[in-house]
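=== RUN LOG ===
request id: a7f3
mode: sequence -> structure
chains: 1
length: 72
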Amino acid sequence: MIQNRDILDEFYRKLDAEEELSYKEALAIYEALHREAVALGAISHENIWDGFEVDLRIAKAINVVTSCKKGC
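=== RESULT ===
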C-alpha cells in the first residue's frame, strides 16, 4: 500500500528524468522479459488473456478513484 503518493510520484519523475533508454533498448528489455516469462511458464499464447476482463475492471476502478482524488 502506498503511504505517501507525493514521494512516489517524485521518485518516478526523477527516474524518468535520469533514465536514458532508447526505444530499441527498452524493446530489447521487454522482449527478454517476455521470453523469460514464457520459458518459466508464467504466460503462454493460450493463457495470455486469462483474467484480462478482471484486470480491466480493476484498472477502471483505480482510475476513477485516482481521478476523484484530483477533483471530482
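=== NOTES ===
The radius of gyration is 17 Å.
Residues 8 and 14 are 10 Å apart (CA to CA).
=== END ===
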